[in-house]
From TrEMBL, chain A:
Pfam families: Cpn60_TCP1. It comes from Pipra filicauda. It comes from the Eukaryota. One of its GO terms (molecular function) is ATP binding. Probable molecular chaperone that assists the folding of proteins upon ATP hydrolysis. Plays a role in the assembly of BBSome, a complex involved in ciliogenesis regulating transports vesicles to the cilia. May play a role in protein processing in limb, cardiac and reproductive system development. May play a role in cytokinesis. It is found in: Cytoplasm, Cytoskeleton, Microtubule organizing center, Centrosome; Cytoplasm, Cytosol; Nucleus. InterPro entries: Cpn60/GroEL/TCP-1, GroEL-like_apical_dom_sf, GROEL-like_equatorial_sf, MKKS, TCP-1-like_intermed_sf. GO terms for biological process: animal organ development; chaperone-mediated protein complex assembly; cilium assembly; developmental process involved in reproduction; protein folding; system development. The keyword Magnesium does not apply. This is Molecular chaperone MKKS. GO terms for cellular component: centrosome; cytosol; kinociliary basal body; nucleus. Belongs to the TCP-1 chaperonin family.
UniProtKB/TrEMBL annotation, chain B:
Pfam families: Cpn60_TCP1 (PF00118). One of its GO terms (biological process) is chaperone-mediated protein complex assembly. InterPro entries: BBS12, Cpn60/GroEL/TCP-1, GroEL-like_apical_dom_sf, GROEL-like_equatorial_sf, TCP-1-like_intermed_sf. This is Bardet-Biedl syndrome 12 protein isoform X1. GO terms for molecular function: ATP binding. Gene3D superfamilies: GroEL, GroEL-like equatorial domain, TCP-1-like chaperonin intermediate domain.
Length: 572, 747
């Protein structure tokens, strides 16, 4: 007998942001993000505490996937950062830190949330307008006719995660590979709607990073290939190899119904009849002159044997992720059922060879002209490999986003400080009509704008993890770093060398001042300038699209969180 | 003395240290999320728990460093079973490593083992040495980023610097051949020494003591270093005469050999002298027993007696083995066989996939040898079948899966809802299993198969029925063995017997009982060793014999280590001079680096990010000293383990002395190479052969060594840069309700 329990009433929490536990969790979350930020960021060991694998990372995507946040307020935050990361890959920590910092700063202001929201929306539009305008002093345009800026972009992504454990040579090597892989995916002959190809990452763990390489075409791991035997593959008249692609299982078990029961007479073997059907497919393939059969799943050993005897190469267990690029590369249509094989399904391939990487053997499918390539990625340890894979994917994605919008933002904290000084300058020179439109006083506007600028600067300050000082200059509004342990000096120009992004050197007196978190910073006279010399190599650059999106997501999420007045929790 | 490790480890020393750190309540470090910011900066400044865990775990492995290793017993307290180990891999395998740092350490060691099978002890030791050196840096308030950048750049620079010490294999071969010892003069001496030491009652007594009452305390380590070394030296010394002497006096791996009565050893060595060579390696052009052409009886591959005629690679194997004698003789045979074949194939590398091992328990170690083909153990019933096969050319079948009725190929999903309806029950028909058995047997009989090699397991009933029908079924057999047989016999591996067609079976296999070199009958109780061979097969089996059960794993490990060392030396095409030469050059190079001024960041093409900028000079020299201390401790512990120095302190002074001399002479690399040429890098010799002065050099693998360094440093730096543990899953709730929950923060 079942017992009915009365429903519990929902829990009603008003003003969740004023609650102590929520504040502490927010502080903790913000600390996790801030301590992980940048090339000198600290790593987090994610594990289950009972001997599961250890993930060492400082990446927002990995952190957020493992963090289980109990407070619904914070879940809003983590969800929107995760959403941003899934769209842009890059600037996840930037978004998260900025968002936490905005919430902290605005909460302590004595301004009604709705006013704050109106003002921040205005600030956001100031920022985006500035970033999108030609006059923007913190962006560089990306020239796709040379590799320099692209190299800078990729290198900045690769060096931003210390858990990859790369040294300088390795960074340079991988930068070249990632760029090469990206260029493979750009179609040579552009038609009306050009589509970028795909780079498939092949894992080889436990090897030197320098063993990594990029190959055009696809690699499928095969344990059974015997080395030393020449590959004899049947070719068509035009010396191409005819290929058939199966996404259906060919292991001979497809008679098993999903539900319901099959009754068979004793002595009838479903397995045998299924195998016979498979062998008939094999006969058809041989008859059609197919030279290579690739199956996503398993091929029955008897069918394999039959194909081999008829000089047809069979490769199975290609995996789901390879099917789309395989089909695209060879022009073949994946056969979804062994009964629906038709000559129209076949594709073609230029060549097949065997590649040996470390202790693994791969069948290398070489197409004639392709936008598909494979990046064989090696790293010494499992945990560093996982981090490196995520970083390479991010770099690839950043290049794709940059192709759509050929701009990049100065990295190393310079965009943040530059934008902050721009907003400080701009907000001090707004007309009174703006305040009337927003329905706020100038003081309120100044307070919110200052909170916004401090939040931006706190992102730049989060790059520093080892003591030392963070400076900003009064000319370009860039971010400068003074390492700790230096004897105290009277003049900052004695100790600074280059700004965070590397574009400005210590050549003129830029009247540096310490970037502090609390006090209101002095407003610079006039708009922060754009650096006069535009060096293009060895800059730290950030993805334009990702950072703009991050800025927007952070502000909107902060607004949403600030605006929360009730949390209603279902307790059943 | 070593820290005591318990198994299974309820509170291992690492955890204990960690807890004692936490007990002072300064550092609530292991957190659900992350500690207070000030608190965790404190962790980094004073005592980084991850690094402490690493150094305390690593300290257990220092006895495995260098050519003179001490064995350890790992005792499982719950079952009272103990295991004898002598390598870092086995040590790490036996420890319960649930801490995150411990797990990363385990992963690192396993990866090194998988690729190189050597360098794991070096790796483990350096992890420990570098973590404690880094902790010292933290205590002097050196920022983490400075430690990371200076250490990794310092190691890179050292790895580049030591490249000048690399010696190409070609030069090594020349060197080894020319510095060969005069055989005659040595023969007597070596023999004398060998007999002396083997018969030495003190040695015998000592060993008995060693096995009867080892210092077993939870996990004990037989680290009686002083005595140990004398003992080992005595045993190892006969090998000095390698080549000629080696065939006279058996090189005995180590102390267990003294279990065998001395007379036995000498007897066997005399026999050996008479036995000479197999037909494959007859240096005289014909061997004593090669009367019957193409017979398969003299399958025991013997190393040539004269080192000049034996391959140069044999010497190289010797020089790389660092006194690990077990494999050297076997290696020599393998190398010769593969070289002979390589002349046809045109590749000079050692093919590891063409070698398998078979461990025989119950014979003295002197019976270890390399046999052509595949040696494995079968039941006495099957052995009878083999007697029947004598000299017959067999039809062979290779099965690429299990040989059971239930077995289906990988990826086949068993149907759950198929019901079979029996319309006309036939009471006479046997059970379903019987029909499968007889069907399989019918297939085998109809194709006249004599021998089936199965990759997976074999159904017991089928095995018995086959044996009764004089079909030999052997499984499980490694994949490489199947491939080798497939290649020479033309047999095609099948997954099911029903796939069989005439082209699948191969012909030309021979099977016979394996015999020891002196024809000694094999009585190993339940199982009988047999040898399966095909003319021209590339496959070799290293038969490792031992009378001590606990040494089986040990010998196998040692054999593979030696084989991989040679393999990688050939693959790299070069080796490092051994005996501490490389480490000494690193130390001198670090002195040079310390004196270099800190490069101004503005100059030249540099990384843009000032966040990774070169740190101030004061930190740089501190961190470089930390890097150097790793190698310095390495050298001094090796010297201590070899009893070249009475204490680590004195060893360190010795290292400093040599370092000073190397630096003073202007060109440290030339100085070190000269020392190495004289066979005397760190004074008083450094190899296991040191007692016999010049001539016998030791070499190290290039890639294995530098990779071990890099992996060790990577691990230390990875842990160093970690500031928090995030524990997910059910353990989180457990922690929430546990008394230590105050050390954690919960989101």
């Amino acid at each position: 007998m079942s017992r009915l329990e009365a429903k519990k009433p929902p829990l009603f929490i008003s003003e969740p942001l004023t609650k102590d536990t929520v504040c502490q969790s927010l502080l903790l979350l913000s600390r996790i993000f801030k301590s992980s930020y940048g090339p000198a960021g600290r790593l987090k060991q994610l594990h289950n505490g009972v001997g599961g694998c250890v993930c060492t990372t400082s990446q927002s995507s990995a952190l957020l996937r493992h963090l289980s946040v109990s407070s619904p307020v914070l879940r809003v935050l983590t969800a929107s950062v995760q959403n941003h990361v899934s769209r842009c890959s890059d600037c996840g920590l930037f978004t998260a830190i900025l968002c936490c910092s905005l919430i902290e700063n605005f909460r302590s202001l004595n301004v009604a949330p709705c006013t704050v929201i109106k003002i921040t929306k205005n600030l956001l539009s100031l920022c985006t307008d500035y970033l999108k305008s030609e006059a923007c002093g913190c962006r560089v345009s990306v020239d796709f006719s040379s590799v320099e800026t692209l190299v800078c972009l990729v290198r900045s992504v690769l060096t931003s995660k210390p858990a990859c454990m790369l040294n300088k040579t390795e960074v340079e090597h991988l930068t070249t590979l990632v760029l090469k892989a990206f260029l493979f995916t750009v179609p040579c002959h552009v038609e009306t709607n050009a589509v970028l190809g795909k780079c498939v990452i092949i894992p080889v763990k436990g090897r030197r990073v320098m063993d990594s390489t990029v190959l055009p075409g696809l690699l499928i791991e095969t344990p059974e290939i015997q080395l030393g035997k020449p590959l004899a593959v049947k070719r068509t008249g035009s010396s191409m190899i005819k290929i058939a692609l199966f996404c259906a299982s060919m292991s001979g078990d497809s008679f098993s119904p999903e539900e319901g029961t099959i009754a068979v007479r004793h002595g009838t073997s479903l397995e045998m009849s299924e195998l016979n059907q498979l062998l008939n497919v094999g006969k058809q393939l041989v008859h059609d002159g197919v030279g290579l059969v690739v199956c996503q799943k398993v091929i029955h050993p008897a069918l394999k044997q039959y194909l081999k005897e008829n000089h047809v190469m069979a490769v199975d267990r290609a995996g789901l992720s390879l099917m789309e690029p395989l089909s695209r590369m060879t022009g073949s249509k994946p056969v979804a059922s062994i009964h629906s094989l038709s000559p129209g399904c076949y594709g073609s391939l230029k060549d097949v060879s065997i590649e040996r990487v470390a202790s693994k053997h791969f069948v290398h499918l070489i197409p004639g002209d392709t936008v598909i390539c494979s990046l064989i990625l090696c790293n010494r340890s499992e945990t560093a490999w996982d981090e490196l894979k995520r970083v390479c994917e991010t770099a690839e994605h950043v290049l794709q986003l940059t192709m759509k919008e050929p701009l990049a933002l100065l990295g190393g904290g310079c965009t943040e400080t530059h934008l902050a000084s721009y907003i400080r300058y701009k907000s001090s020179s707004l007309s009174t009509s703006t305040f009337q439109d927003l329905g706020c006083s100038q003081t309120q506007y100044q307070l919110v704008a200052d909170g916004f600028c401090r939040s931006l600067e706190s992102v730049a300050r989060s790059l520093n993890h080892d003591g030392g000082e963070i400076l900003t200059d009064m000319v370009y509004g860039h971010c400068w770093f003074v390492p700790s342990g230096l004897p105290s000096v009277s003049n900052w120009s004695d100790v600074v060398s280059k700004c965070g992004c590397g574009i400005n050197g210590n050549t003129e007196d830029l009247s540096w001042r310490i970037l502090e978190g609390q006090s209101c910073s002095p407003v610079i006279q006039g708009c922060p300038k754009e650096p006069s010399v535009k060096v293009t190599d060895f800059l730290t650059l950030d993805c334009f699209a990702a950072k703009c999106s991050g800025l927007q997501v952070a502000l909107e999420t902060a607004n949403l969180v600030l605006d929360l007045s009730y949390v209603i929790e279902d307790q059943n | 003395m070593f820290p005591l490790l318990a198994w299974p480890v309820p509170s291992q020393p690492a955890a204990a240290t960690a807890r004692s750190g936490g007990a002072q309540r300064a550092v609530p470090r292991r957190t659900r999320c992350c500690p207070l910011p000030m608190a965790f900066r404190d962790v980094n400044a004073r005592r980084h728990i991850g690094l402490q865990q690493l150094s305390s775990l690593a300290s257990a492995g220092r006895a495995f460093l260098g050519p003179m290793k001490s064995h350890k017993f790992i005792v499982d307290e719950s079952t009272n079973q103990s295991t004898l180990i002598c390598s870092a891999v086995r040590l790490i395998e036996s420890l319960d490593l649930t801490s995150a740092a411990g797990q990363l350490l385990n992963e690192t060691i396993q990866v090194q083992n998988k690729e190189f099978k050597t360098g794991m002890s070096t790796l483990l030791f350096l992890v420990g040495a570098w973590s404690s050196a880094v902790v010292e840096c933290l205590q002097q308030n050196v920022p983490v980023s400075a430690i990371v950048s200076v250490m990794s750049e310092g190691l890179n620079s050292c790895c580049e610097r030591v490249q000048c010490l690399q010696i190409s294999i070609h030069d090594v071969k020349k060197e080894l051949c020319s510095s060969r010892v005069r055989p005659n003069a040595f023969e007597c001496k070596a023999c004398q020494v060998g007999c002396d030491s083997l018969l030495n009652p003190r040695g015998l007594l000592y060993f008995q003591k060693c096995i009867s009452e080892p210092e077993v305390i939870s996990i004990s380590c037989c680290s009686h270093q002083g005595d140990d070394c004398h003992f080992n030296k005595g045993l190892v010394s006969p090998l000095v005469g390698f080549g000629s002497a080696a065939s006279l006096v058996k090189p005995e791996g180590d102390r267990s050999s003294s279990v065998i009565p001395g007379s036995d050893v000498i007897a066997s060595s005399c026999i050996k002298q008479k036995l000479t060579h197999s037909r494959h390696f007859s240096t005289l052009g014909k061997s004593h027993f090669s009367g019957q052409q193409g017979n398969f009886q003299e399958y025991l591959l013997k190393p040539s007696a004269d080192p000049c005629e034996c391959s140069d690679l044999g010497h190289l194997a010797m020089a790389l083995s660092h006194g690990n004698q077990t494999g050297v003789k076997l290696l020599q045979s393998i190398v010769e066989y593969q070289q002979e074949r390589a002349e046809c194939r045109g590749s000079s590398q050692l093919n590891i996939t063409e070698v398998v091992t078979c461990s025989l328990l119950g014979l003295p170690e002197s019976y270890s040898c390399v046999s052509q083909g595949f040696v494995t153990l079968v039941s006495p019933e099957q052995a009878k079948v083999i007697k029947h096969f004598k000299d017959k050319s067999l039809w062979i079948l290779l099965v690429d899966g299990d040989l059971t009725e239930q077995y289906r190929h990988l990826g086949f999903n068993r149907p759950h809802n198929v019901r079979t309806i029996l319309e006309h029950p036939n009471l006479e028909g046997g059970r379903a299993g019987d029909t499968w058995l007889s069907r399989m047997l019918d297939i085998l009989v109809s194709f006249e198969v004599n021998l089936v090699l199965v990759k997976g397991s074999v159904c017991k009933n089928l095995l018995d029925r086959c044996t009764a029908s004089r079909i030999l079924v052997i499984g499980p057999v490694p994949r490489d063995v199947l491939c080798a047989f497939g290649e020479v016999t033309g047999a095609q591996p099948v997954t099911y017997l029903s796939q069989l067609n005439p082209s699948c079976a191969g012909n030309g296999a021979q099977a016979e009982l394996w015999e020891a070199s002196d024809g000694r009958a094999m009585d190993l109780g339940e199982l009988v060793p047999v040898r399966i061979d095909v003319r021209g097969i590339p496959l070799l089996t290293a038969v490792l014999t031992t009378a001590v059960a606990s040494k089986v794993q040990l010998l196998e490990d040692q054999f593979w280590t030696s084989l991989y060392r040679l393999h990688h030396a050939l693959k790299d095409g070069k080796v490092f001079p051994g005996g501490g030469a490389v480490e000494l050059l690193c130390l001198s190079h670090i002195q040079v680096l310390t004196e270099q001024p800190v490069r101004p960041a503005k100059a030249g093409k540099e990384f843009p990010s000032p966040w990774l900028a070169t740190p101030v000079a004061e930190y740089k020299s501190l961190v470089l000293q930390a890097l150097a201390s790793g190698w310095k401790r390495y050298l001094s512990v090796v010297m201590c383990n070899m009893a070249k120095a009475p204490s680590e302190l004195e060893a360190r002074a010795l290292v400093d002395h040599h370092l000073k001399k190397a630096v003073d002479c202007g060109s440290p690399s030339a100085y070190i190479l000269e020392l190495f040429r004289r066979g005397d890098v760190l004074g008083g010799g450094f190899g296991p052969f040191a007692d016999h002065g010049e001539g016998l050099k030791v070499y190290d693998n290039v890639a294995a060594k530098t990779e071990a360094w890099r992996r060790a440093l990577d691990l230390v730096l990875l842990v160093l840069q970690t500031d928090a543990e995030i524990i997910t899953g059910p353990k989180r709730n457990e922690l929430l309700n546990s008394p230590v929950s105050s050390e954690f923060m919960f989101l």
